[in-house]
Amino acid sequence: MQTPGKQKLRDALMLIYERRLRRSLAPDRIPEHIGVIIDGNRRWARSAGNPVSHGHEAGANKITEFLHWCDDVDVKVVTVWMLSTDNLTRPADQLEPLLRIIEQVVDELTAIGRWRIHPVGALDLLPSVTAETLKRAEAATRDVDGMLVNVAVGYGGRRELADAVRSLLLEEAAQGISIEELAERVDVEHIARHLYTKGQPDPDLVIRTSGEQRLGGFLLWQSARSEFYFCEALWPDFRHVDFLRAIRSYSQRERRFGA
């Protein structure tokens, strides 16, 4: 068991290390867009013998902290994956408390008034209260001159691609374009203009916590040329120093853009 004196020394050394890490980051090597897959809330709660809801609450608090870290190093866009389309099939006694926590987080981010909130996902699959919370946040922050925060709720990469193709077909049909004509001219840019993140830069860096080394369907199209950073820490335990290490790792890589 650590004594208070040893803990203070450890905290002081960690603070010095964080400051050194921060100073080592070159401004021109900071990712413009960071995507984060928050993972490990349930395991974090269970490891301490607490209800799963405690993990989701701790994870929700970490989101605001993470966004401040991103803002501090001048990241322009952050996409936070809070709830997948697969999660929507969970039993009501698991899903409904999680949705209430997400709604609360979105309201809190809106109240901060520092970032533009943009819902990313299939809002039609969400309960009306959750969907309205997301729409209200977007409307309330539309004119904020700050970092863009994509809140991915009810998000699935395959669903996004299906929605993009459907939107493209409907748009072209409304202009009288036949399927044959569309097949002749459609390209990747046509589809990209119908993604949930249309008009945004693709993520330069995707971070996933909890030690899992997979995307799970996160930004399938947009992450084709992204760099990835997998961290062992469960999301509620993800620290500022972990974030800085992820940025340092990104800055030291030679990006080949899919090559």
UniProtKB/TrEMBL annotation:
Its EC number is 2.5.1.-. GO terms for cellular component: plasma membrane. One of its GO terms (biological process) is polyprenol biosynthetic process. This is Isoprenyl transferase. Homodimer. The keyword Transferase applies. Catalyzes the condensation of isopentenyl diphosphate (IPP) with allylic pyrophosphates generating different type of terpenoids. It comes from Kribbella albertanoniae. Keywords: Magnesium, Metal-binding, Transferase. Binds 2 magnesium ions per subunit. GO terms for molecular function: ditrans,polycis-polyprenyl diphosphate synthase [(2E,6E)-farnesyl diphosphate specific] activity; magnesium ion binding; Z-farnesyl diphosphate synthase activity. It is an enzyme of class 2 (transferase). Mg(2+) binds at D39, E227. The keyword Lipid biosynthesis does not apply. Substrate binds at G40, N41, R42, R43, W44, H56, S84, T85, D86, R90, R208. The active site is at D39, N87. Pfam families: Prenyltransf. Its cofactor is Mg(2+).
